[in-house]
Specification:
Strand 15 and strand 16 form a beta hairpin. This protein has 19 helices and 28 strands. The strands form eight sheets. A nine-stranded mixed sheet has the order 3-10-11-21-16-15-14-12-13. It has a five-stranded mixed sheet with strand order 25-24-26-27-28, with helices on both faces. The longest helix has 21 residues. The chain is α+β, with helices and mostly antiparallel strands and 576 residues long. The chain is globular. The chain folds into four domains: 259 residues, 2-Layer Sandwich (BirA Bifunctional Protein, domain 2); 61 residues, Herpes Virus-1, CATH 3.30.40; 71 residues, no CATH class; 102 residues, 3-Layer(aba) Sandwich (Rossmann fold). It binds one RNA strand of 74 nucleotides through helix 1, strand 5, strand 6, strand 23 and helix 17.
RNA sequence: GCAUCGAUGGUCUAGAGGUAUGACUUAGGCCUUCCAAGCCUAUAGCCCGGGUUCGAUUCCCGGUCGAUGCACCA
């Protein structure tokens, strides 16, 4: 590998030129925070998404759902995004600088600034100094800058909607339907791959911070008492990886390498479920082509965690340009979201868990004599009935409070029955384990890590060393010459590979070396060349992108061999 | 959002107050028996808006995008 002055610039230039990533609506001037995926980029992204599906949908059995990107206001009121997904800001009247109002206040020695209302904060700020120009602010208005895109649903702006800032809420609000779909049993999961939107104040860093981005999220609903019993934990129990705990971060120490079993037993990761998906994430990211040495798992610091999460780990990928980039978030969201939506919507979001054996529980029932009670208390009878159910009667009767008034109900107006009832189970609110992947950041990391320059025949060769599983074009087919039927044979081979579902690209333009270089630059892992020997013995050369080595294989074996090479079940160097 | 710098074919680049240089790429052709060879031909460009000027891609102002610093990053 030769020295790379700036991989980011090289890779983004290539990405633009060869159709991976483009600035959006470029002819009108691009818009920061939005990108277009070009033909190769869209294909690569889809392949990454499909690897993600292999892991979560096929292997874990968590079906994918698809919710709208716009949801009504109530959804985000419940989730806390309307109130909380905003920064309190103010503008310095002297230097016009926009400031985080709570930061200014804390800088001025005011406590609990982050929990104050706008008006309180505004008053408190009057004596604080601007963080930029250090003038005393005086009268300033504090306003919330909500990071959600707001819109209206239907004509006349009657109904407020927001573009979703995460796909997760769709899975939460569909909880009751999902629970029925999974036949009322825990654990189960739902996943979603789709666009989310955040109106970032100042997006920079190309594909890393977008205003519209693709998330792949899984919401796994588990019994709170079963979080240490993942049914397939054995799969990753001995899977080892470096973990950077918050304690180590606070002490400036390096990550420790632990197996998932050790991590859970030592309390480093909160539970088996979280550890399982930490390990699964590590495996998946390596499959798409992330080098393990450029991958780490970092635990959120206690003050960094969202208020609902008990433990949270980020998979971070090291970028030449941006340093460690948070790419996947793995959180134990507890029952926060389901409780919030149950409360806001009035729909129960619980699972009925049957006990192994019904429990015999003594229960006291109070049965009022309504015919007397109704006549005697008339319009208060109904309220009295309700209150009696929870009353504690004595042999002299019971006292109930209705509208602030204590009413004595004599013992002959109700009957007390002590009985033993069977309790067959209980309603519990599941906890949610959430692995949340930033697909665009994964795409960028794949691009950056695939980019390489080497020297072939004294000339610089630019090559994208994609894993065959994510490479947009999977195989190229060339006739050595465009004559003597070599091109016809090459076209037939192309068709036979396409029938196998492979993206095979035929190219007969220019010298053979140029065609290899073209494919190297877009990361096509394999190239087939039809030459004059082909006409003698029905074999072709199969060339490996990374080693530039070639082997001869029979035409009839091509679909099977290429198929196996592309899905990773065979590797090139083992072929004959 | 503020400050500084930048923007010329697809890419990299030269350049001047009078419509633009070269290379690579791409396309067509010739040639060519495995790694960007050679020859011929062709396509293609001054970020957007306003101002100054007879004339602006060039100077000035504003915007957009990008880079850097500040701020921000559920």
């Amino acid at each position: 590998m030769i020295f790379m002055s700036d991989v980011f610039e090289n890779v983004m230039e290539l990405a633009k030129r060869r159709g991976f990533v483009w600035p959006t609506s470029e002819c009108y001037g691009a818009v920061a925070g939005f990108i277009d995926y070009g033909p190769l980029g869209a294909m690569m992204k889809r392949r990454i998404e499909n690897i993600w599906r292999d892991f979560y949908v096929i292997r874990e059995g968590y079906y994918e759902i698809e919710c709208p990107t716009i949801a009504q206001e109530a959804v985000f009121v419940a989730s806390g995004h309307v109130a909380g997904f905003a920064d309190k800001m103010c503008q310095c009247p002297h230097c016009n600088e926009f400031l985080r109002a709570d930061h200014v206040a804390e800088g001025g020695g005011i406590e609990n600034a982050s929990t104050m209302k706008n008006e309180e904060l505004s008053a408190a700020l009057a004596t604080c100094k601007c963080l930029a120009c250090e003038e005393v602010l005086g009268t300033v208005e504090v306003f919330g800058f909500n990071l959600m895109f707001k819109t209206s649903i239907g004509p006349g702006s009657q109904r407020v909607g927001y573009l979703r800032p995460e796909t997760a809420q769709g899975m939460f609000v569909d909880f009751a339907r999902l629970l029925r779909f999974y036949r009322d049993k825990l654990p189960f999961g739902a996943v979603q791959i789709g666009k989310s939107y955040r109106n970032e104040i100042s997006p920079r860093q190309g594909m890393i911070r977008l205003r519209e981005f693709t998330q792949a999220e899984a919401e796994i609903f588990v019994h709170p008492a079963e979080k240490n019993r993942h049914p397939f934990f054995g799969r990753y129990a001995s899977y080892r990886m470096p973990l950077l705990t918050y304690v180590q971060q606070q002490n400036g120490q390096d990550a420790v390498t632990l197996s998932m079993r050790e991590a859970v037993d030592q309390g480093v990761i909160a539970n088996e479920y979280l550890a399982y998906y930490v390990a699964l994430t590590h495996e998946m990211l390596t499959v798409i082509g992330i080098k393990p040495e450029r991958l780490r798992f970092r635990q959120h610091l206690p003050d960094e965690r969202a208020h609902y999460a008990t433990d949270c780990w980020d998979a971070e990928i090291h970028s030449e340009r941006f340093g460690w980039v948070e790419t996947v978030g793995l959180a134990d969201r507890t029952d926060y979201d389901l409780r919030a939506h149950a409360k806001e919507s009035g729909t129960p979001m619980t699972v009925f868990i049957q006990y192994d054996e019904p429990r015999k529980v003594p229960r006291r029932r109070i049965i009022p004599n309504m015919s007397v009670l109704g006549k005697q208390y008339r319009n208060k009878a109904k309220a009295i009935f309700t209150e009696l159910e929870s009353a504690i009667p004595t042999k002299d009767g019971a006292d109930v409070v209705v509208d602030g008034e204590t009413i004595h109900i004599p013992p002959d107006l109700f009957e007390v029955r002590d009985e033993i009832v069977d309790i067959r189970g209980e309603d519990i609110v599941p906890h949610v384990i959430e692995p949340s992947y930033g697909i665009d950041r994964m795409c960028y990391a794949v691009l950056e890590q695939a980019y390489d320059e080497d020297v072939a025949d004294g000339e610089k060769r630019v090559v994208m060393r994609f894993s065959p599983q994510v490479a947009p074009v999977q195989v190229a087919v060339f006739p050595l010459m465009t004559r003597d039927d070599l091109d016809t044979i090459a076209r037939e081979i192309t068709t036979s590979l396409q029938k196998k579902g492979l993206l095979a690209e035929y190219d007969d333009s220019g010298a053979i070396g140029r065609r290899y270089r073209r494919q190297d630059e877009i990361g096509t892992p394999f190239a087939i060349t039809v030459d004059y020997d082909t006409k003698e013995n029905n074999t072709v050369t199969l060339r490996d992108r990374d080693s530039m080595k070639q082997v001869r294989v029979a035409i009839k074996d091509l679909p099977e061999i290429i198929g196996a090479l592309v899905d990773g079940t065979r590797v090139f160097l083992e072929i004959k």
